[in-house]
Amino acid sequence: MLHLDFNSISESILGPKWQKLFNTHWPAYRAWFQSKGAATNPDLHTSVAQLRHYMPEMMPTYERMCELAGHDPIAARFLTGWQPPAYISGCSQVVTQNPPQLVRNYDYHPNLSEGTLLHSAWNGKAVMATGDCLWGVVDGINADGLVASLTFGGRKVVGKGFGIPFILRYVLEFCSTVDEAVAALQRVPSHMAYNIMLLDKSGAHKMLQIAPDQAVVVTDALVSTNHQHKVDWPEHAQFSKTVERERYLLEMLATANLEAEDMAQTFLHPPLYARRFNEGFGTIYTAVYRPAEGYLELRWPGKTLRQSFDGFQEGITTVHYSESVQAIPVPATQMGTPAAATPAYVPTETDEYWTQYGQAWATGDPTVMAKNVAQSILSATGKADDAQLAKLLELFTSETKKRGQIPWEMLADLWDEPVAS
């Protein structure tokens, strides 16, 4: 059974706690970063110049991080956030009102997730956010009541720009309202396509569709999954069920007398909650943001972690993930009932179901498991029959045999090479 330790960390000013976080995760990030040749392409000088140009307010923070990282030039290049290798995740998100609330599922593989919930005030504004890439944000809230969250936009285009987690960090560090966040997101380029949901404590919201090859599209949409306006990547859409998830959320919003808690609970059930972890598409957590009340919750079946600006508690929350369980969907016709009526997940015999993946995991044979993971990714990209990627699959499996464990950083090589825009 897979598991992930979520580490809740509170450190207002960059110091020893962030340095420990860096020392823990940097070896894996470095291997991934170097595997795609990103350490020197573009070079450090160019990358720092782009950070200074687009996000000058972040420079003191960046310089302090480089100091804590021991002035490692590869780390310095990575920490600029400029032009990282391509990466994708799943995710669904929705905004509701009365009270203002943003709910999202983060869908990925636990072994590729940082598992960090960081409470900080690096530039004077308190921020609580789930982390990625050591200082990036996949979703978070600041003390002014601004919430920002991302979903992958479902397009293969890769251009010149910053990794989106770095941009969202900038937004939460220096913006207070949705309007300010929109302006920042229109100005700072993203290297890939994403849907960004914004909500503030007044209830104002926007959903932005951003991509490196087109102007930012600002909408009033309340829902986003993994496509932009229309499906651009059919194979990924079929794999991730992005259209089906979007349709389900829109139907939920149309339900009469829908309560905020009802919406939050439905994210813990299919079709929104996914358990395809061996295919890189399992729900790592459900996040519930209440900006007017100043708190967030990370939820899992049978477990909730609540954090607030006034009462943030450090500690480890260990989460276990099952490949196959008896899930209990919640029909839209029942969502008008109190949230307490939603059955809680109870472990069943199917938790240890002996699928091919489960057999590989239980017997300690990472080679079979690695092949399953790689094959799933190739199928999702629509390149399962591509000769070049078939060679990468062979290399991936061979490297697994040598190490005795899956070389997760090599998953980057199963992705199409970036195309300059």
From TrEMBL:
Top-level taxonomic group: Bacteria
Record InterPro entries: C45_proenzyme-like, Ntn_hydrolases_N, Peptidase_C45, Peptidase_C45_hydrolase
Domain Peptidase C45 hydrolase: 99-302
SUPFAM superfamilies, sorted: N-terminal nucleophile aminohydrolases (Ntn hydrolases) (SSF56235)
Keyword Cell wall biogenesis/degradation listed: no
A molecular-function term among this protein's GO annotations: acyltransferase activity
Xref: PANTHER family: BETA-ALANYL-DOPAMINE_CARCININE HYDROLASE, PEPTIDASE C45
Pfam families named among the record's database cross-references: AAT
Protein name: Acyl-CoA--6-aminopenicillanic acid acyltransferase
UniProt entry keywords in alphabetical sequence: Acyltransferase, Transferase
Keyword Transferase among record annotations: yes
